[in-house]
């Protein structure tokens, strides 16, 4: 295709032109990504040390408003670098590879949630304006097309940008974060939804979104993230 000749596909890991043509990642770069494997936390899908544990430390300590969720990758340095390129260097095409892998590995899980829609975690309108796109929404659209499931990108809004407040306790931080999100009342809400995000760390953002959606009448909320981990 002409488009491939003009804009050859770049690898989400090394950034070089992908060979063989038609692939979405260079085969030798695949092992630099750390795919999540069991045992995982039954709530958030984060890897845990022993399968005798049910939950990770965060999920054991905090009540979760979402049903459960999962992620494709452990948030290692390679994943962090790749996600940063998507956001800050406009490498949106990298999400094609991640969406393809998510559907290939987690399509059955995502379908078994029997959700009515995908909802990308929103970014603040100011950030949307400066970045030009919301990476979670782009991913949700790709996933929605493949699963297939409708994407509701305009029901959940980020109304405030919150700064991390280290001096506050986790529960207070979460209450504050909750105030950063709201639903557009005039939009019809799905009965159940899967939140889509690029990175899940402590789960505070997903939890805040889930609370706001549930309070507005969404019965079941799940999530799927590209990366999961404590951050690097
Ligand atoms: Zn590569
Ligand atoms: Zn967990």
Task: Describe, in short, the structure shown.
This protein is an alpha/beta fold. The chain contains 8 helices and 6 strands.
Write a structural description.
Helix 4 packs across helix 6 (135-146) and helix 7 crosses helix 8. This protein has 232 residues and is an alpha/beta fold. It has a single domain (36-48, 55-228), classed as Rossmann fold (3-Layer(aba) Sandwich), CATH 3.40.50. The chain has helices at residues 2-6, 57-61, 77-88, 94-112, 125-131, 135-146, 170-178, 204-215; strands at 69-74, 117-120, 156-158, 181-183, 192-200, 220-228. The chain is 35% helix and 15% strand. Bound molecules: zinc ion (2 copies). One zinc ion is lined by residues 11, 13-14, 16, 26, 29.
Helices and strands in order, then pairings?
Layout: H1 2-6, H2 57-61, E1 69-74, H3 77-88, H4 94-112, E2 117-120, H5 125-131, H6 135-146, E3 156-158, H7 170-178, E4 181-183, E5 192-200, H8 204-215, E6 220-228
Parallel strand pairs: 1-6, 2-5, 5-6
Antiparallel strand pairs: 3-4
Helix pairs in contact: 4-6, 7-8
The protein binds zinc ion (ZN) (2 copies).
